[in-house]
Amino acid sequence: MHQDDFFESLNAQFQDALPFVAYRKPNEDRVNAVFQNDDVLYETKDLSEAGFVFAPFDDSSKMILMPLDQAEVGYCDHFEGEELLTDTSKFSSSSDQKVEYINTIEQAIATIKDSDLKKVVLSRPDYMTNENFQVFEVFKRLLSTYKTAFVYCWYHPKIGLWLGATPETLLKIEGQRLSTMALAGTQVYKGTTDVSWGTKEEQEQQFVTDYIVSNLEAEVEQISTSERRTVRAGGLLHLQTQISARLGKEHSGLLKIVRALHPTPAVCGLPKAEAKAFILNHETYNREFYSGFMGELHFKKRQTRNTNRRNVENNVYATVKSVTNLYVNLRCMQVLPNKVALYVGGGITKDSNPEAEWEETVSKTSTMKNIL
Question: Which of 47, 73, 129, 317 could form a disulfide with 254 if both were Cys (CB 3.0 to 4.6 A apart)?
């Protein structure tokens, strides 16, 4: 579909108050869309269906599904748009927010020093007034700015409107192969990825890697990890380790694997149960879908052995694989009446400096504020 026609179709669906999601996977050109045919709020209990899932942070809440058997799919092969230059100097957050956030960080540090808690990820909403929110203009700016992220625009009339550009994969499954990542540590991108990291960031990243590996071991075989590397997401850098494995023959289904990973230490903390309890008791708002997960569930991918189309004989051996691509919902915004909530957080450990943690959240929202 041509780019103009694609966005026209999205706009028509939006004007008709029908659910849709449009998204582009990291480092790809194609923008995909799922257009639901009715306004029913479908949910998935076990992640067994084919469709696009949108799940909250709190895994006791409903996971929303746009089922492929109740939808049309479309795509635009290549999106053209101009990247915005980020000017971070003109943005700040309110002093009330600062006092409240730093107070919660101090409580977290005290709890970590006095309990089994090693790390907790604390977040906050940052509100911007936006009387005249142009949803598809903002989506186009996200597509232009975040080439290496999973960029999405998700709408359901019974839930609302969310957009974002997340650098973090929850998991990818293609046939029997599973891959995921450990992501932690943040610093501002200043023209190079050749940077040094402090002990706090390296230790935090190792916590995350070890946690994922130990949690997956019961469900998978042949698990392996890559070297730690620095990756860029918009105006920020993070530490990343790739983790890959083979699904065991006896694995107990996708829900069990997702539960082993979600919520990840990058959005919750370690140990998971203690960190989650601290978040639900001390954060002063409901995260809803921020730091939840979303993506393609059991999409079909056709693969041929032979890439030469003229050799029709070998194309008989084409295989259809089931593919699942799930992403953690970070760097996102929720469009509310007359305002937009930007969600942002950071990992707190015993060595955290509350003032520096606050500044990190201000850096993290600057690209999104620039887009708005």
Answer: 47
